[in-house]
Design a protein that fits this description.
The structure holds 2 protein chains of 2 kinds. Chain A is an alpha/beta fold. Chain A has 2 domains: 222 residues, Rossmann fold; 130 residues, Rossmann fold. In chain A, 41% of the residues lie in helices and 19% in strands. In chain A, strands 8-7-9-10-11-15-16 form a 7-stranded mixed β-sheet, with helices on both faces. In chain A, strands 1-3-2-4-5-6 form a 6-stranded mixed β-sheet, sandwiched between helices. Chain A has a 3-stranded antiparallel β-sheet with strand order 12-13-14, with helices on one face. In chain A, helix 3 crosses helix 4 and helix 5 runs parallel beside helix 6. About 9% of the residues of chain A have low confidence. Chain B is mostly helical. Chain B has one domain. Helices cover 72% and strands 3% of the residues of chain B. Chain B has 11 helices and 4 strands. A two-stranded antiparallel ribbon of chain B has the order 1-4. In chain B, strands 2-3 form a two-stranded antiparallel ribbon. In chain B, helix 5 packs across helix 6. Chain B starts with a helix and ends in a 14-residue tail after the last helix. Classes of the chains: A alpha/beta, B mainly alpha. At the A-B interface, helix 1, strand 8, helix 7 and helix 8 of A face helix 1, helix 4, strand 1, helix 9 and helix 10 of B.
Chain lengths: 406, 294
């Protein structure tokens, strides 16, 4: 009986741990309900289909249910706005765009299924996927099929390891390197403490590049502390260690949910360094009931600020707010730009929809070095042959409880 | 030295939260002989009720906490009545799976009502922090309240079990429910009462947890729930002082492990200690060796 009980306990723990692992997947399911009606949009001009698919078929893949649904939904909406704009303005090279978005729930296997569904539909260019792990999986498929792929937000290095794949956002290492450079060049600190999530690729990728670049910068990393997905409630030790090390800047390469806890803990311990984050901080002011004074002075690098004077940004933000009732985040902005980059590449290549997927991809890849793009996430963006964009990140600071571009 | 004391204080504070949650686990296990995996989610519901009433409706914190305790008590009894009571004669595995199901159900209900976005919880504690040793050691009001609440709850529970009639009925049911029934103890209402007390404790634990660590999502309760379950096993599941000691030790080991060994390996250290304790003392620190009659 005792054995049976202990077996039961072991089983129970395994089950419950597994339950924890999976549970986060569902967390944002409710956010997608508002946008489901726009999953598939036929181009306004369907008459031209008579002459053999005379419209460019752009597919999108991303999580519109599950724990990362906030990001997938933003991308889906961002693409939709760009597609509508382009179609209303006469299309690409005179051809309309057809757009189809499939859900992958942030899961690699489902992303492949979504890719196959889109291929059956006739997709010629892929804008996606949204999150890194599925993106890496799908990039193997697009490489095999030689299909042009641009990911709005897949930050992991491997997302664009093949020649046919490009990226709109910064890669993880770029963010780390740029952050270290910014801190060093502006003399923000001499002693830096880092807290990062060692169970997350995004956080670890930024931290590693940051640490590597820090060696070339006039500041010293005095404390490095980690946390994991299973122990991200109590940050007292990490904050206390940073404080004891005498750091005057705390670098936080992780998402805003944990950041709000770290900021609260620093306040509790009376520790007031300069807070420096990454683009995952975007959203911290939207945490319900959050005391925004805790985030005052928080600085981070981001590709996009909705509160900008730039005309393109204002146009995009007002359309997004009108259509979806919320302020777009950087994922929506990157997605919007991705579609315009596809347009720019097709135009530079002089391509037509009747080309095969592979020929279209070769033509677009050939044209990419000549593309220079001005968008909402940066100006004069060019791409290296590796598929990495070169664009200057914006420096955003929380001033008087609002994101302000420095 | 100050650093060490500070870590210790943080560890005891975290451990006290684990202990209050573990008391709920251990009571239900001791009396109903089932692992109530939905316990962690009742904590989350308790915290959300306080969030709605205090931050949302603007009621005073004390009223909010009382409403939350009442709501969780009713919720706990409802869960017991609807989900567990029909399975009283079923196999343990069936009850366990049901508990996991209830856990998911509560998480998803919270998700439907409150959405997935993180909420920031305003602390209900208004006591000023104590500053010692010239400001290098700060003990927050939340820590003080949590530790005191934990001790009061443990002593209160032990007194209740020992001296009150229903407490002794619980003890009788925990030792042999059939015999207790023969002696005129109403087993069903005793078990329902256990769930009521356990869920009321969960509400208090939820408030204290979120006051110390002010982030609230539908998944807030699951990890502390698991840790508290470990604490209950560590101290000897079924034993009230065991849950208390297990909770405090778990918190202290976790924080000291983070501070002096590695912040990444903290959980591994906690579980390694658990395994060693269970190898030496399979029933946990204060667990009783109960002879099973075959």
């Amino acid at each position: 009986m005792k054995k049976a009980l202990s077996l039961l306990l072991v089983g129970a723990m395994t089950l419950s741990l597994a339950a924890c692992g999976n549970s986060s997947k569902d967390s944002a399911a409710t956010d997608s309900s508002t946008t489901e009606e726009s999953t598939t949009t036929e181009a306004a001009d369907t008459e031209s289909e008579g002459n053999g698919g005379a419209a460019f078929k752009i597919g999108g893949i991303g999580p519109i249910t599950g724990g990362t649904a906030i990001y997938g939904t933003a991308v889906q909406n961002g693409i939709q706005i760009a597609v509508d704009e382009i179609n209303a303005a006469g299309g690409i090279n005179g051809y309309q765009i057809e757009y189809n978005f499939q859900d992958d729930e942030g899961d690699s296997e489902k992303a492949i299924n979504a890719y196959n569904t889109l291929k059956d539909w006739g997709m010629q260019v892929l804008v996606g996927t949204v999150t890194s792990a599925p993106c890496i999986a799908v990039s193997e498929e697009t490489h095999k099929d030689n299909m042009f792929q641009i990911t709005p937000s897949g930050t992991a290095v491997e997302c664009v390891q093949y020649d046919n794949a490009y990226r709109m956002c910064f890669s993880d290492p770029t963010q780390g390197t740029e952050s270290a450079k910014y801190i060093g060049e502006n003399g923000l600190a001499t002693k830096v403490a880092v807290i990062y999530d060692s169970s997350d690729v995004y956080s670890t990728g930024i931290y590693e590049a940051f640490a590597a670049e820090a060696a070339n910068q006039p500041f010293e990393i005095v404390s490095v502390e980690a946390f994991t997905a299973d122990s991200k409630t109590d940050f007292s030790v990490q904050v206390q260690k940073s404080k004891e090390a005498g750091a005057d800047l705390l670098f936080m390469p992780f998402y805003y949910t944990e950041a709000s806890l770290v900021l609260a803990e620093c306040n509790k311990q009376g520790y007031e360094p300069v807070f420096f984050g990454c683009d995952g901080m975007d959203g911290i002011l939207g945490v319900e009931n959050f005391d925004v004074s805790l985030a005052e002075g928080l600085t981070f690098l981001a590709p996009f600020v909705a509160k900008s004077d730039d005309e393109m940004v204002q146009n995009f933000v007002s359309k997004y707010e009108a259509d979806y009732g919320e302020t777009p985040n950087q994922f929506a902005a990157d997605a919007y730009d991705s579609v315009y980059v596809v347009k720019a590449a097709i135009e530079a290549a002089g391509a037509t929809p009747d080309m095969s997927v592979s020929d279209l991809c070769d033509a677009m890849v050939g044209a990419m070095p000549s593309v220079t793009y001005d968008g909402v996430t940066g100006k004069s963006i060019t791409w290296t042959a590796d598929g990495e964009p070169s664009k200057a990140p914006l420096v955003v600071q929380v001033v008087n409880g609002e994101y302000t571009e420095l | 030295m100050i650093g060490f004391i500070s870590y210790l204080v943080n560890g005891i504070s975290l451990g006290s939260v684990y202990a209050i949650i573990a008391l709920g686990y251990t009571m239900v296990y001791g009396i109903a002989k089932m692992l109530n995996f939905a316990h962690g989610d009742v904590i989350m519901i308790g915290a959300f009720v306080v969030f709605s009433t205090v931050s949302g409706a603007g009621l005073p914190p004390v009223v909010g906490v009382l409403i939350s305790v009442v709501a969780c008590t009713l919720l706990g009894m409802a869960i017991e009545r609807i989900a567990y009571k029909p399975l009283r004669k079923a196999s343990k595995l069936a009850v366990l799976i049901t508990a996991i199901g209830v856990s998911y159900f509560l998480q998803n209900v919270a998700l439907l009502i409150y959405g997935a976005n993180t909420k920031s919880f305003t602390s209900v504690v208004t006591i000023k922090p104590i500053s010692l040793a010239g400001g290098s050691l700060v003990i927050s009001g939340e820590t003080i309240v949590t530790v005191i609440a934990c001790i009061i709850i443990m002593i209160g529970l032990m007194t209740f079990m020992k001296y009150s009639k229903s407490g002794r009925a619980m003890l009788a049911v925990s030792e042999d429910s059939d015999a207790a029934q023969l002696m005129g103890v109403n087993v069903n209402s005793t078990i329902a009462m256990t769930f009521a007390i356990g869920s009321a404790l969960a509400a208090i634990a939820g408030v204290l947890l979120c006051s110390s660590y002010p982030s609230l999502t539908p998944y807030t309760g699951s990890m502390p729930g698991i840790k508290a379950f470990v604490a209950a096993v560590f101290g000897g599941i079924g034993s009230i002082p065991g849950a208390f000691i297990g909770g405090i030790l778990l918190g202290v080991i976790e924080i000291l492990g983070k501070a002096y060994v590695s912040s990444q390996l903290a959980d591994a250290i906690v579980f390694a200690v658990l395994i060693i304790v269970l190898l030496v003392k399979p029933t946990g620190l204060l667990g009783k060796q109960i002879q099973e009659k075959v």
